[in-house]
Write a structure and sequence with these properties.
Elements: H1 19-29, H2 39-50, H3 73-90, E1 93-95, E2 102-104, H4 106-114, H5 118-130, H6 135-147
Helix pairs in contact: 1-3, 1-4, 2-3, 2-5, 2-6
Amino acid sequence: MTISWSGCRGMNNSLFNTTQETATRLTLCLPLLSRPSTIDEIAAIDLTATYMKAFGFGQHNLHGDGPHALAEYDARRKRVQAGLAQLVIIGAATVDSTCLFYRATPECLQYSEALHGDYATSYRRAVQLLIKNDYETIMNRITKENNQL
């Protein structure tokens, strides 16, 4: 399974914090979600999965121990929104008729299963741990940590 990123608009020359990087990470996340989810839910899970230690859910941060991890929610939400839009365009995600709830397609699952490596494994484990919590628990932790900044 190959997902073509050609035709992606607004992509920059940076390797990090791009729509493509976020969309790729979301192909690991979406198939693990048991129900269609909102942008806010997906963004909260994605942010927390990459900063498990910072939010008190784990021992390590996948994206390092930077001082700005806790204040990144708004920027991450925008990237998740762009990443989800890109996944819908290429057929790796669907959105319901209200444009509120997203879910993985079989193509997304195929692509996710093809992604291997330490990062992919660690990210999947983090998402699996987080989805055992409810969304409110995750958002409360994000809000609490942001308020302490």
